[in-house]
Amino acid sequence: MANFTCKLTPYLADVSLLVSAQSLVVIAVDRFVAVVFPLRVSFLTSKRCLLCIVSIWIVSMLVAIPHLLANKLFEFDGKFICLPISWKDVLGDGISMADYYLGLATLFIYFPSVFLTIIYTTIFTKLNSQKIPGERSTHSGRQRSKQNRNVLRMAVAIVLTFILCQLPGSIIVVLFLHKANSLNCAFLAYSSIVILATLFVYSAVNPCICLVFSGNYREGLRKVLRSICVMKAMKYSNNSKRSAT
Q: Where are the beta strands (DSSP E) in 173-212?
C-alpha cells in the first residue's frame, strides 16, 4: 500500500499541475479571440470545449507517466522515503531525470507563464482602447464594462497565482537536479518546504479568487450550501420521526 501511495501521490500532483497549466492557456486563447476578434465565432464551442478537456487530461496523464513508474519506496536510517530512483529503467540512458524535469518545466510552466502574460497584456490593452460611442453612458454599457473588468481581474489574479506559486518550486527542482553537488543541505531542506507550501497555496487560493471576483461562482456555492442544509434538515426530521414512533 505504501509503495502504491508513493507512486500515485506525486503522479496525481504532476497531472494536476499539467492540467492547470494547459487549461489556463486554452481559456486565455478563448478570451483573446473573444476580445480581439469579437465578430468571429467563439473559439470554445461546446464540442471543442469537450475535446479540449479530454485532450488536456490525456496529455497530462501520458506526460507524467515516467514520474509514476520511476518513484519507489526505499528505507534509509529506519525511515521510508519515496524518490524516483529507477529513472534509467523507465527512459533508459538517453534522457536523464534532470532533462525530463527541465523539459517539463519549460513546456508547462515557463512557456505558459510568458504566453499568458503576453495574452492578457494584449487583452487589457484592447479593452482599454475600445470606445464605443454612446455605450458607456448607458446602463447596459456600464454593466458590460464592469463585467469585463471583473473577468479580466479574476483571470489576471489566477495567472499571477499560478506564476508565483509554480515558478519558485520548478526553478528549485531544476537547480537541484542540475547542481545537486554544489547545493548545501540547508538549501535543500528549505527548498523542499517552499515547493510543498507553494503547491498547497496554489490549490487553496484559486477557489478564493473565484469567490471574490465571480458572482456566478458565489451564487453556485450558495445553492450547494443550501442544498446541503436542506438535505441535513430532512435527514434530521426523518430521524426525529423515527425516534418518536
A: none
Mind listing the pLDDT tens digit for each residue in 216-243? 778 888 888 888 888 888 877 777 766 6
Phi/psi for 144 (5° steps) reads -65, -45
Whether pTM > 0.85 for this model: the answer is no
Q: How far apart are CA 79 and CA 92, in angstroms?
A: 28
The tens digit of pLDDT for each residue in 2-51 reads 777 877 888 888 888 888 889 888 888 888 888 788 776 667 777 888 89
What's the angle, vertex CA 63, arms to CA 16 and CA 163, rounded to 5? 45
Helix-, strand-, coil-residue percentages of the chain, each rounded to 5: 80, 5, 15
Residue 53 has pLDDT above 60, yes or no: yes
In a 13 Å sphere around the CA of 28, the CA atoms on its Cβ side amount to 25
Distance in Å from the first CA to the final CA of the chain = 46
84-90 long-range contacts, Cβ below 8 Å, gap at least 24? 90/66
Using CA atoms, how far apart are residues 194 and 200, in angstroms rounded to an integer?
Answer: 10
CA 41 vs. chain centroid, Å, equals 27
**Residue listed under C-alpha cell 486565455:** 28
| DSSP at 181 | G
β-partners of residue 83 are 72
Dihedral sign from CA coordinates of 175, 176, 177, 179: positive
